[in-house]
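Weekly modeling sync, notes
Attendees: S.R. (lead), two postdocs, one rotation student

Agenda item 3: backlog of single-chain predictions. S.R. asked that every request posted to the team notebook include the full sequence so nobody has to chase files. The rotation student volunteered to paste the first one in as an example of the format we agreed on. Action items at the bottom.

Example entry:
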Amino acid sequence: MLLLTPGWMGALGWTSSLLFVISIAAAWWALGWVAALAVVAYGLLLSAIIDVISPLPTYSHCFNIVESTLKAASNPTVRDLADRVHAIRVHHGR
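Predicted structure, as returned to the notebook:
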């Protein structure tokens, strides 16, 4: 899966989550709980939009591509790899 999605994407996700929490705390500290709720709403809306239009595929999307390609193969040995990929996906929680 590293060939389809770069490894730094995971670090970018954690960094953006950390910055989101910091921005909520800063809004609460500076303007109160109403501003913090506004930041939460804005962040959830923005993350939903970015998830839809992101140019980089997510891990689950990459797994879906690999699984569907392997299941469509005519070779039974290759189709068995789809089960292995599914097991890896379940093991890693994606």
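Discussion: group reviewed the output briefly. The mean pLDDT is 81.
Action items: rotation student to repeat for the remaining queue; S.R. to check formatting next week.
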